[in-house]
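Chapter summary example: a protein plus zinc ion.
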Amino acid sequence: MDVINPRGGWIEVITGGMFSGKSEELIRRVRRAEIARQRVQIFKPSIDDRFDTKRIVSRDNRGIDAIAVSSSQELLANVVIGVKVIGIDEVQFFDDRIVDVCMELADAGVRVIAAGLDQDYLRRPFGPVPALLAVAEYASKMHAVCVRCGGPAHYSQRVAGGNSQIEVGDISYEARCRQCFEPYRALSEAKAEQAKLQAEPAKAQAEPIKIVEQVQTAEPS
Ligand SMILES: [Zn+2]
C-alpha cells in the first residue's frame, strides 16, 4: 500500500499467518519511505531473537536495521524527533498498550506500519493485533501458500516434526488453508505441550512459550 497523504498520520496493519510475507511487505514499504527521504524508525520486540537481534530479516535474507524494545513504553521512549514513518515487526508480542502508542504516534502525524500474526496456532486472535486492526486506517491480510493443496493459506498449523519446516526447539509450523487445517491436531499439540510443561515446571518458567514465525524451506508440491 502506498498511500499518499502529505499531512501524514495514520496506522497500517500488515497481518496474516506464518510464512505469508508480512516482514517482506513491511521492509518493502519502509524502503519506499527511505527512498522518499523520509525519516524512518523500525522497532521489534526483544522476545523475537531469531536470526539477528538488531535487524528484521525476511526469508529472502533482505534485512533492515531495527531497535529491539521490551515494551510499548520503551518503544515510545525511543522515538526520535522528526520521524515520519515507524515500522513495528512482530507486533503480536507487544503488550496491549501498543495500541494507544500507535494511536498517539499517528495523531502526532506519524505513519505507523505494524506487522504481525493475526491468530495463534489454535486460530485465536493474537494479543493486541485485533484491537490494532480495529483502529487502523488500512489493513492488509497476507496469505501464505498451503503446504497441502497450494491454495491461499490463512492458518499456521503446529506440527511436531515433519520435513517441510525448520524446527526450533520442538515446535514447527506449516501454512494451511481452512480446508486443510486440522483443528483437532492443533488441540492435541496444545495438550501435549501443556503436559510437557507440567512435567517440567522449572523449565516452563525459564522458557515461556513463544510462537514465533519460522523459516519454511520447502515449497508445496
Ligand atoms: Zn489447503
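Key point: The chain is about 25% helix and 25% strand.
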